[in-house]
Sequence to fold (810 residues):
Amino acid sequence: MPDIDTVIRDARVMTCDPARAGLGMIDHGAIAIANGAIAWVGEAADAPPARRTIELGGRLLTPGLVDCHTHAIFAGDRANEFAMRAAGAGYLEIAAAGGGIAATLMPTRAASDDELIELLEGRLDLVLGHGTTTIEIKSGYDLTVEGELRLLRCVARSAQTRGGPRIVPTLLAHLVPPERTGDRDAFVRELCDQLVPAVAREGLATSVDVYCDEGAFTLAETRAILGAAKQRGLAVRGHVGQFRDLGAADLLAELGALSGDHLEQVTDAGIAAMARAGIVAVMLPGACIQLRLPVPPIDKLRAAGVAMAVASDLNPGSSYCEALPIQLWLAATHYGMTVDEAWLGVTRHAAKALGLAGVGTLTVGAPADLVAWRCEDPATVPYRYGASTSLIDEVYFAGEPAPPR
Amino acid sequence: MPDIDTVIRDARVMTCDPARAGLGMIDHGAIAIANGAIAWVGEAADAPPARRTIELGGRLLTPGLVDCHTHAIFAGDRANEFAMRAAGAGYLEIAAAGGGIAATLMPTRAASDDELIELLEGRLDLVLGHGTTTIEIKSGYDLTVEGELRLLRCVARSAQTRGGPRIVPTLLAHLVPPERTGDRDAFVRELCDQLVPAVAREGLATSVDVYCDEGAFTLAETRAILGAAKQRGLAVRGHVGQFRDLGAADLLAELGALSGDHLEQVTDAGIAAMARAGIVAVMLPGACIQLRLPVPPIDKLRAAGVAMAVASDLNPGSSYCEALPIQLWLAATHYGMTVDEAWLGVTRHAAKALGLAGVGTLTVGAPADLVAWRCEDPATVPYRYGASTSLIDEVYFAGEPAPPR
Fold:
């Protein structure tokens, strides 16, 4: 065992260890940290000596939360569109008033790198304050080859200079931009032949995601873009059936994707295909509530054995939410997931959707990204859904306290 | 005009003044404060001189939020019950495991006054931090005559010693306690003949609320209890049709009640009666989501001209939430209320449900309970539903900043 820097003991440790049942709780547990990683996990009585020992008085210690689906890099504000939707305006009416994704494209394209990074980091401060230590961030609000590369480079710059959260960048083929709708085949070819290869070459993302839905990309286009991604060694993911089921679940299964996300609309065959392929179903209850969509078929996903993740969908259109614990509450209430399913959804299963081993668990070798809570019961975090920041005693990133900014 | 202590200017002032349309916005507005009350409201250019001037740089200034329906005084924790419900357990199964309201009765009865007040004040700190400056607090977790009086005396003690939020105590006839179910007529008579008169005599509450629903009080019992309240000069309110419509809306209209709350189940005739009687419909979307109930008939309430309030229902069973802005988001999304309706629901209409004149508005004579926000658009508060505390720049209570504790 390496020299131990820190031992955290007298904790209810939620290991999320796949070798243990449920949440892998150790009621009188401890963990040991060396070089920013977890070096030992076990009963408090057996904990090794350390330079620093922290006693939690029986309170809950969990993995840092993992938010596996966000669109956190953008400029502009769509509060006005939120008000229009609340007043009953539909998608088309909002689009006609200059709303929708196009309303984020223009300010994002117009913003400087520094402006984009400052906006992103304001959100990341809140994200970390709510206990999220790993966050996926998708591009997708420029929709030109150079512009999407710029967004991913801004994300990379932020990832290199900040002390948390851990950032997992994803290239998102979000939709065909307004100026290319007359020319969409050529646009898709650019994505396949220029953007995806450039992202792979520069190492700007580990996966490619396609929004396969009405008004976004067709199934054939999705196949072409994700095929190009696989050819370049990138992992693939997909937005599936948020509004209409185009058959993306089956395609993702065929391609061995990491995740299929949204899933308000998906066939039984699509669920079975996801289960066979071991694809994570990413649940986004905040966006579902905000757009007043039907609840995805949780019971069928559970029965089929599909692992479920829960994410914020942090984005300016349908879910401007940095607080993953609110999604935990929505998952365990509106979506009918169990508390254990919801917690695994923001820890181990979320990390699986990102292709990350170890992250989202408290197991030997995993990064020491932790949340020390002021409560004892994992259910308290969703149960007290208005109090999440005040329930957090300390967030640790790579073994060190991450002070609120 | 009295001597002005403070002018807050260069603000987007949301007056909620009933003499103005919608939210009564003044885009380049100001307010003047004297002796803890609002002494003047108007255009920034016309603001009077003052000892202290605060410039808001064009940002939003609103009334302090009013949470008109809470059960905030209790002891004990029901996180375990939350987990059972998430795992699919029904009401009866939870009750058989010792859950439900009975699970709060025992620890509340066992807690000392000081313990109850400490627990309450921990919640009130969070409530104030989320922008709520007036909160209604119902008794209802003891269910003996002496015990209910004790709860209301604890609330009164807290109200006298704290610097906010403003507290409006309500006597709630919550349900027949387990030990009196064989004896319920006598229990109802005790409420009518002993508890209600004692509350009126001691001035411990301004209104009486009855939970009229399956498993709680029948319509005839509700009529008896609310009749006793009216006889003693107390205002009346009712929990209406959360699970089943027993006809309480019509009864409340007949009695000239302040509000009918929940309303997941209510007939068209009940809505019409509420409209005729000018009764506020109190919407409780957090509890609705958590119990997976149908959405109340918002469109019908709107069409009938019923004023709608929005509240947290802060309670240990179905909505442990101190954050009213999350309810604002749920109202404007899941409930399909407009942003203006949702905002009036946590300001002027909520105050109306409490029988308070002026509160919930920025008008001359109202208490200077305010929130200065870090945004400009009222829609931003529900839109950024994970960020409410960080959107608040300052909460003012009776004209003075209320520092976070």
Q: What stands out?
A: Chain A has two domains: 6-63+361-401, 66-353.
